[in-house]
């Protein structure tokens, strides 16, 4: 059996899943801890030979696959040469039309512009990047290891190379105290960089007794110590509204493609912004008891 990444973007459900690294090398974001929680506490790089063997096995299962996704959290860590070899092997074996991966901002930033051009020439079409917030202080508190300036720079390099950007924004990351700043700065960065996609997630500080039984979210420690004041469910809906309202006439496709989102809206901002806002406002106009029942019904999951 080929090893497969533990986590993948929802839209890659039908893609070849190729595991290049195991876990997350950084593993420090306070809001995350997800790989340890799912049973992968360490980080390791798989050899190119191992990965090629997996690709051979995948070929037997899905000979005509046209899309592929590389994981786990930071599959560009092994470096450009390894990526080029894996991408070439994949493209020789399959009629690949779209090759994507997760990528940390700091990893892309260390690679620099020229290496990103090489990734593009090797066939990398899109990167899934945790933007999380656009606010430097919030990113620092959560130990994300990236700054808005780094995001601006790598976004320009990616655009120049023709690699699509899929950003993830995490509602609730500023807590109740800084939510407006969190969203305003996220909107500012999105307006400045105009990514192809923005995917909306909602912060959930999970406990150790979630279905996976791994360690709890590191953020719970900060909540207990009074260092983080969690956002309310309704607050995250207001965050979503503010985010969409603040985005300019972008061609960016925004989607709430995770079950934790209390209101699910999707659309291209320059075409569907008003429809998305109308849907959120219709939800907010429901009686309070209905909204509260809805928050309970949606619940939280990984
Ligand atoms: S958010 Fe990403 S970079 Fe941060 S710890 Fe989680 S997987 Fe690693």
From TrEMBL:
Keyword Iron (UniProt): yes
Pfam families in the record: Radical_SAM
Recorded GO MF terms: catalytic activity; iron-sulfur cluster binding; metal ion binding
Cofactor: [4Fe-4S] cluster
Domain Radical SAM core, first and last residues per copy: 10-254
InterPro entries tied to this protein: Aldolase_TIM (IPR013785), BchE-like (IPR051198), Elp3/MiaA/NifB-like_rSAM (IPR006638), rSAM (IPR007197), rSAM_sf (IPR058240)
Alphabetical list of PROSITE patterns matching this protein: RADICAL_SAM
Keywords: Iron, Iron-sulfur, Metal-binding, S-adenosyl-L-methionine
Keyword hit for Disulfide bond: no
Species, as recorded: Candidatus Brocadia carolinensis
Domain of life per record: Bacteria
Name of this chain's protein: Radical SAM core domain-containing protein
């Amino acid at each position: 059996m080929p090893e497969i990444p533990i986590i993948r973007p929802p839209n890659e459900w039908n893609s070849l899943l190729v595991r290049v690294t195991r876990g997350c090398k950084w593993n420090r974001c306070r809001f995350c801890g997800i790989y340890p929680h799912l049973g992968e506490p360490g980080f390791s790089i798989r050899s190119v030979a191992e990965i090629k063997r997996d690709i051979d096995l995948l070929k037997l299962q899905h000979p005509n696959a046209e899309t592929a996704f590389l994981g786990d959290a930071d599959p560009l860590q092994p470096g450009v040469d390894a990526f080029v070899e894996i991408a070439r092997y994949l493209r020789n074996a399959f009629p690949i039309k779209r090759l994507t991966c997760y990528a940390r901002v700091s990893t892309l930033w260390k690679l620099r512009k020229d290496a990103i051009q090489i990734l593009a020439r090797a066939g990398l079409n899109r990167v899934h990047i945790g933007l999380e917030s656009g606010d430097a202080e919030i990113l620092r508190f959560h130990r994300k290891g990236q700054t808005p300036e780094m995001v601006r720079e790598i976004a320009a390099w990616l655009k120049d190379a023709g690699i699509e950007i899929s950003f993830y924004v995490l509602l609730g990351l500023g807590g109740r105290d800084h939510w407006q700043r969190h969203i305003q700065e996220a909107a500012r960065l999105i307006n400045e960089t105009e990514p192809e996609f923005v995917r909306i997630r909602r912060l959930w500080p999970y406990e150790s007794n979630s279905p996976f039984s791994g360690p709890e979210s590191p953020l719970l420690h900060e909540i207990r110590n009074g260092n983080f004041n969690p956002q309310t469910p309704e607050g995250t809906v207001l965050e979503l509204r503010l985010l969409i309202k603040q985005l300019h006439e972008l061609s960016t496709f925004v989607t709430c493609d995770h079950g934790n989102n209390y209101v699910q809206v999707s659309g291209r901002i320059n075409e569907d912004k008003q429809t998305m806002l109308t849907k959120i406002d219709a939800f907010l106009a429901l009686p309070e008891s209905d909204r509260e029942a809805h928050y309970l019904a949606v619940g939280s999951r990984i």
